Amino acid sequence: MRKKTLSIIIPMYNEEESLPFLYNRLTGLADNIKDYDIEFLFVNDGSKDNSLEIVKQLHKVDKRVCYLNLSRNFGKEVAMGAAFDYVTGDAVAIIDADLQDPPELIIEMLKYYEEGYDDVYAKRRSRDGESWLKKFTSKAFYKVLQAVSRVPIQKDTGDFRLLSRRAIEALKAFPEKQRYTKGMFSLIGFKKKEILFDRDPRVAGTTKWNYFKLIDLAIDGIVSFTIAPLRIATFLGLFTGIGAFAYMIFIFVRTLIQGVDVPGYASTICILLFVSCVQLISLGIIGEYLGRIFIEVKGRPLYFVEEYCGKSAIDSSVDSDSDIAISTAK
Ligand code: UDP
Ligand code: MG
């Protein structure tokens, strides 16, 4: 019988300092997995340091190491999307390059995979090495996202997980350019299993995220996942409309009873400001969706590959053992 393949996807962006540690831990892990062929798929997301060279060196001595070199930095979400297209495994794990996710957990994930689960995801028990602000904001974000969407969202869960082949195929069917992969994991359904783990601090290097990127991701998350904000805007308009109508009747009646009341400047300005504020927010929300429609409608390719070295059949023009660069448009 053919041995099954376990693929491990590692998106990396400027991770030269972490890679030696990571490779050590990964080979340690692979030694403990006897029933599977192993593929390490490093996705180089336009690193400006030596990450790619290090991986190429590893590939020379260890044929389990494959790599996909994207033509520039596309962001982790797209890097993962690219990896889904190229990965060959029957079971596919996704792990960060900075060892914040302990690779050893994949053994436990594999156990559940064999029991028939399609998506075994690691939920963070603790978040060492993260500021209280990041913990607080991430908690608030999950709360909001859950409140506005009907699909159950996995709380405190990153991309660290193990997926079955059919889950990968389902993820590949999402054509969107503005990707919120965490939402997609929920949307595909299938049998899910949660396991708990303690998230470690990074071994080396610095986080690639800053608060602007996180806010971006949060807005992407909500807007790509649900149209609830549009509805909220409608309700807000409805309620202010009802309020304005009630106030209008009040003024009308008062004028009838008390005659014309000239001083009314303060209340007029207040109402004016409030209503314009509601209008602007609603316009902004519509704009978010319109912008997204604009981007999707252009139908631009999600990513470009500068070089792929591995076993996937997508790029059959590439000899799996050659280092010749062949660019492919996807
Ligand atoms: N990453 C990437 N492209 C980017 C930013 C990050 O592929 O544009 C990778 C990064 O190398 C790491 C993973 O995504 O393997 C998570 O990034 P990071 O550790 O910076 O995020 P955090 O753990 O702080 O959320
Ligand atoms: Mg990290």
Question: Can you describe what's shown?
Answer:
With 330 residues, the protein is of the alpha/beta class. It has 2 domains: 4-225 and 300-328, Spore Coat Polysaccharide Biosynthesis Protein SpsA, Chain A; 228-297. It contains 10 helices and 9 strands. The chain has a 9-stranded mixed sheet with strand order 7-5-6-4-1-2-3-8-9, sandwiched between helices. It is elongated. The model is unreliable at 316-330 (pLDDT under 50). It binds uridine-5'-diphosphate and magnesium ion.
List its salient traits:
9 strands, 330 residues, alpha/beta, Spore Coat Polysaccharide Biosynthesis Protein SpsA, Chain A, binds magnesium ion, single chain, 2 domains, binds uridine-5'-diphosphate, 10 helices
Strands of the largest sheet, in order across it?
7-5-6-4-1-2-3-8-9
Range of strand content: 15-25%
Broad CATH class of the largest domain: Alpha Beta
Count of DSSP H/I helices: 10
Which blocks of ≥5 consecutive residues have pLDDT under 50?
316-330
Oligomer: single chain
- What is the element string, with H for helices and E for strands? EHEHEHEHEHEHHEHHHEE
Main pleated-sheet profile: 9 strands, mixed
Tally of DSSP β-strands:
9
Question: Which molecules are bound besides the chains?
Answer: uridine-5'-diphosphate, magnesium ion
What's the short version?
Helices cover 48% and strands 18% of the residues. The chain is built from ten helices and nine strands.
SSE layout and pairings?
Elements: E1 4-12, H1 19-31, E2 36-44, H2 51-61, E3 65-70, H3 76-86, E4 91-94, H4 105-114, E5 119-127, H5 132-148, E6 157-164, H6 165-172, H7 181-188, E7 192-199, H8 211-225, H9 228-258, H10 265-298, E8 304-309, E9 328-329
Parallel strand pairs: 1-2, 1-4, 2-3, 5-7
Antiparallel strand pairs: 3-8, 4-6, 5-6, 8-9
Helix pairs in contact: 9-10
Bound molecules: uridine-5'-diphosphate and magnesium ion (MG).
The site of magnesium ion (MG) has 5 residues, from loops.
